[in-house]
Amino acid sequence: MKLLLVVNATASSVTPRVRTVIAKALAADHDLEVVNTDQRGHASRLAAEAARSGTDVVVVLGGDGTLNEAANGLVGSRTALAAVPGGSTNVFARSLGLPNDAVEATGQLLTALDERSVEKVGLGSVNGRYFLFHTGIGFDAAVVERVERRSHLKRFAGHPWFAWSALATWLRHYDHRAPRFAVHLGDGRVIDDGFLALCLNTDPYTYFGPRALSVAPLATLDRPLSILTLRSLRFRVALGLVLRAMRGGTAPARSRWVVLADDEESVTISGYGPVPHQVDGEYLGLAETFAVRHHPTALHLVVPRPSSDA
Prior knowledge:
Layout: E1 2-7, H1 16-27, E2 31-36, H2 42-52, E3 57-62, H3 64-74, E4 80-85, H4 91-95, H5 102-114, E5 118-126, E6 129-131, E7 134-138, H6 139-149, H7 151-157, H8 159-173, E8 181-184, E9 190-194, E10 196-200, E11 206-208, E12 211-213, E13 225-230, H9 235-247, E14 258-264, E15 266-279, E16 282-302
Parallel strand pairs: 1-2, 1-3, 3-4, 4-16
Antiparallel strand pairs: 5-6, 5-16, 7-10, 7-15, 8-9, 8-15, 10-13, 11-12, 13-14, 15-16
Helix pairs in contact: 1-5, 2-3, 6-8
């Protein structure tokens, strides 16, 4: 098979040794080209060019942001996307069942390539930007923006830096008294006092160390989106959601403060002024209106099969 390996050399767990080992493994039985990304958006252009040139699979060694860019370059093409975890959290790769070690994950990927284990999966989009696993609007995106201000700490401090950024954002940098937007669901319901909206294409929402944070267990790549809206940012409400998410496998307790809607094809979120948003962990800035859509069978994806040791 003809493969393109796209490497984000600045990703948290990518080293020259890891890059070399993975490239040699992929090149053993396949026609391989290796390219490093050098700026934001580069992976999307590389993936689109690969699709036009007839490449069979674009393999991404990097974090979720690099994977997202590559996916956006491949939507609608016959070229498949394959993930090798190289970031700090690797939500999408781990949600596929891959180990969080790049070399181990490559072993499973090679088996999947030999078995031609490629599926057409659905993606979400917000204002035309596709996402693999989720988009966050409101408080969640404000936390991501704060993390990205000091991206070097993200590489070295990892999850503790995320936790500290979330607390600092809640305490000092996000108004948790006034609602920020209204969520218009597909059945006509309107949630007019939203502080945080998560639009999920897969579950879990993220990982904290080895622990998955599950907020929408029904969200999968083969069904429409799940939309979770938080109607309060009171400390006990936010903490309760996090603690229940850490248990895994169960939906958050429905209450007047938490609304979960599954199998949503189309949702509109209207801000009361500019609202921050992020896609697959990448901060995209402020907007006042968000058109969220589900796109079935949008992407060819290499899906590793569970190993016999799992």
